[in-house]
Amino acid sequence: MTLRVAPTNHRADRLLLGFSDLRRLRSERPLVFERGRGIFIIDERGKDYIEAVSSFYCATLGFSDEELAEAASRQLRTLPMYPSAIHRTTTPVLELAEKLAAIAPIPNARVHFSTTGSEVNDHLIKFMWYGNHFADEPLRRKIVSRLGSYHGSTIATAALGGGSDLHASFALPMQESILVSHPAWPKAAEPGEDEAAFTDRLALELARAIEAAGPETVGGMIAEPVSVSCGMFPPPEGYFPKVKAVLDRYGIRLFVDEVVTGFGRSGHMWASEAMGLEPDTVSCAKGISGAYMPLAALIMGEEFAGRLERGSDTKGWFAHGGTHQGHTVSAAVGLKVLEIFERRDILGHVQRLIPYWNRMLDRMMAHPLVTGSRRFGLMGALEVALPGGGEKGMAASLAVGGLSKAVYEAGLEHGIIVRPLAGCIVMAPPLIITEAEIDELARRLEAALDQVLADSGKVAEAV
Question: Hey, which bits of 130-228 come out as E strands?
Fold first, then answer.
């Protein structure tokens, strides 16, 4: 029997919600969730939804793992907080740093903890500037990133992603940012351009951008192995080797942002392993704690960390810290996540599930609204368009934001949460999902697609 909870009378117009229509909160109550059950999340009226994007790609172990809840509770009763700074820390923080360094895709790694992915990438920029200053390369302040990527919501990290409209809206300082094209293959290919020519063109664009900025002013390039915010495009064959060759030519570091792809999403602990990348740093968050507690980490190679140590030697200390960086409860949960990964063989489960996931995506191609699909590990994107090319006219009538937004809204009605992005539907379910739950996900998504298709027919008749 489903427990149904009466909605509260709390006012919504006192809340400012990100990625939302702020004025809508004055007149319409947002969707309010009360509890979770595995891959499902349940709203205040008792309706369940499959969270097909693990919230913000973060609830990798679902929404009701008792072991993670108990790890947090136990640490709260033992020592609820203590800052990791001023040559002081706690046992869980020390242990987690050691275990992360041992599994990192970087040899002899060192670890610095933050609270969110945005914060860890912001710290990455700050640390690069600091290290370069004490390595007699103070001009190397600029960072290359790709248009449409997402590296965070701080002033510095927002300048590394998105597009010109976002930058203009927030009047972001862009003098340290160098933006190049995202490898959206094959969508962004020029007529007649094959995969090799496409990656050659992007490598040449990168080299020219570095030359235009002045190679002596460029410190690094930050890149996600798979940039989800662009519509979940896995990189084409040869892209990263060609990028790395350009960076090496100019002595520029590769910073890999694994905030989304780290901790099993690819079927490996790191997408860097799956792709054979050799990063100078790795940014991770989200899955590091299953999102049960705020936790993020910057994993650094010897050369990068050595520059920070050189600055500390010169000044007598490393003048950086924060109250909740390396929070002891978060670290305790992170340790339990790593234990669960090993004991429950989460990576093996994901690897076994990926072929079934891919077959489901292939089956979805039979739907009249689905025109293409992309996949990487336990992630997928379905491109959607109205039959007959009526996307621009009728889709706008279906929902503000186009057809993918209409599918998202219909999905809510049918009990599934997807992410509408760049004309497609992105999904990245919790890693604990089963084959039967993938089937149920597909059933609910097909029902949403059917509803949008039927609504589009009504719009066409009205026109």
Answer: 142-146, 177-180, 218-223
Q: Letter for the amino acid at 280? A: D
Which of these, 132, 154, 421, 380, lies nearest to 283 by C-alpha position? 154
- Which residues are within 8 A (CB) of 251 and not within 5 positions of it... i.e. 6 or more apart? 215
Tokens 């810290």 locate to 321
With beta carbons less than 8 A apart as the criterion, state whether 216 and 139 touch. yes
| CA–CA gap between residue 404 and residue 20 (Å, rounded) | 16
Question: For the segment 206-252, what is each residue's pLDDT rounded down to a tens digit?
Answer: 999 999 999 999 999 999 999 888 899 999 999 999 999 999 999 99
Greatest pairwise CA separation for the chain in angstroms: 75
Compare 25 and 5 and report the one with higher pLDDT.
25
pLDDT of residue 389: 64
Domain span holding position 366: 23-64+345-462
Of 5-19, 141-155, 184-198, 422-436, give the lowest mean pLDDT range.
5-19
Report whether pLDDT(147) > 60. yes
Same domain (yes/no): 366, 355? yes
| Token output for 424 | 């497609």
Q: How large is the average pLDDT for residues 129-133?
A: 98
Q: Is residue 115 part of a domain?
A: yes
pTM: predicted TM-score of the whole model, two decimal places: 0.93
Do 372 and 395 fall within a single domain? yes
Three-state SS at 324: coil
Within a domain: 11: no
Give the CATH number for residue 83.
Answer: 3.40.640.10
**Helix H or strand E encompassing 151:** none
Cα(411)–Cα(144) distance, integer angstroms = 37
Q: Where are the alpha helices (DSSP H) in 135-213?
A: 155-158, 164-169, 195-213
Quote the CA–CA distance of 7 and 31 in Å, as a whole number: 10
CATH of the domain at 377: 3.90.1150.10
